[in-house]
Amino acid sequence: MVVPIRPYYFSLPPLPSAFTNPHQPAWCELATGLFNIDYLDMLMTADEKHAALKDLSAQLTVFEWRNPQPTHNRTVMAARSMCKGEAPVNHAVVFTALLRWQICPPYEWMKWQTMHQHLSPLCYLADCSTGRASYCPKGMGVRMRYAMGQEVELEDAYTQNSSCLWDTESI
Where does the source fall among the domains of life (predicted)? Predict the structure, then answer.
């Protein structure tokens, strides 16, 4: 199998020296790892990925610095309002908020279907990064269709997943 030449490679962004959260390096490391696995830019476009890394590595506001939990971040608050139906869904914002939670959002978020839908592609990329699955366009495509709210047949999802897991050409 021929590996496509990548026009870019994501690296860890520089972190600010003041008003930082001790978890920011972990957020950025997770995001860059997942973005580099998704070389076809199916999760987000390159510009959206750069914006997400910029948001994850940005200096905290005074409000965020006094309350360092991710719930006090403007991106996380925007994603929460999108999932409640109070605002139109911006997929890049929801993915960035989930990365800030290191793909382990609070339990209360799991009652919203939008969170389940957006968590699926990130979990797939995390499985690819740990070696539990191998990245392929079919498997990522099924998860992205689900994230965008399109109907996905259970049989189709199983077939796409199993064909990716046992695809020896991609290993």
Answer: Eukaryota
